[in-house]
Amino acid sequence: MEGLFPENKERPFMFKDKQTIFVSSRVHPGETPASFVLEGILNFLTQKNNEQARILLDKFIFKIVPMLNPDGVYRGYYRLDTKAQNLNRYYTDPTLKGEPTIFGVKQALRQCR
């Protein structure tokens, strides 16, 4: 199956000189403190007058997924998604139909260097 980012299409802009930092949260819906941690990271990175945040944004690309299991969070589950799967067990070989959020993250991360 072709990925979300086809290999034969050139992206309009690539940050070839920057490394990527990937941050995600809530793969297990019951990890509510992770949402507060992620909010703190976003607040820090978006401070206009913070020199440390500016340096980080100049040197790195941040790919942030605030909620990897939105269906499980919505339904109030603690560890699983709506198919009773622990998504942490599917990072090796996710499918678009079975584990779409993990599949999408892996596709996005393939675009990193």
Read across the widest sheet, the strand sequence of neighbours is: 1-2
Strand content: 5-15%
Q: How many distinct domains?
A: 1
Number of strands: 2
What level of helicity do the residues show? Answer: 25-40%
Structural class: alpha+beta
Overall description:
The protein has 113 residues and is an alpha+beta fold. It is 35% helix and 11% strand. The protein is built from 4 helices and 2 strands; from the N terminus they run βααβαα. It is flat and about 45 Å long. The mean pLDDT is 88.
List the helices and strands and how they pair.
Blueprint: E1 19-24, H1 32-45, H2 51-59, E2 60-65, H3 70-75, H4 100-110
Parallel strand pairs: 1-2
Keywords:
alpha+beta; two-stranded parallel sheet; 113 residues
Question: In a few lines, what is going on in this structure?
Answer:
It contains four helices and two strands.
